[in-house]
């Protein structure tokens, strides 16, 4: 529920490609995914609780919303959908064991050349691809700054 990292990643990836106003709209939609409602009721936003297929579909749905908004010249709506989409994409790498599985392929020297976007179909379809489990309500107690984090 810390928007800091989502904001940094988004600025780093997109900062040179969007106006300040457009980037702020994208960031606002991105970090809104971490609202209490988004955290408690929407595993698909975050690749939580092994809802990988549901999250993949959510990204596809947001891509469609984004494209439809562009076709309607509703650019602000497109930016919001894009912000939601990239939030989920960011959480895929942060909340799953994909990076660990990906690293097992490193001994193959041409692996990176084969998958420059780091999306290996063999891993995406692997039975041992997992995302983290959310322990409700324990995990959500972290929103209270006076409680210890460990």
- Sheet/helix structural class: mainly alpha
The number of strands is 0
Succession of helices and strands: HHHHHHHH
Helix content: 55-70%
**Which residue ranges are poorly predicted, with pLDDT under 50 across at least 5 consecutive positions?**
none
Rg, Cα atoms, Å: 17 Å
Head-to-tail CA distance between termini: 16 Å
Overall mean pLDDT: 85
Could you say which overall geometry the principal axes of the C-alpha atoms support? Answer: globular
Biggest pleated-sheet summary: none
Estimated share of beta-strand residues: under 5%
Number of helical stretches of at least 4 residues: 8
Explained architecture:
This protein is mainly alpha-helical. It contains eight helices and no strands. It has helices spanning 3-14, 20-32, 36-41, 52-71, 75-95, 98-103, 111-114, 121-124. The longest helix has 21 residues, at 75-95. The protein is globular. The mean pLDDT is 85.
Describe, in short, the structure shown:
The chain has 150 residues and is mostly helical. It has eight helices and no strands.
Give the SSE map.
Blueprint: H1 3-14, H2 20-32, H3 36-41, H4 52-71, H5 75-95, H6 98-103, H7 111-114, H8 121-124
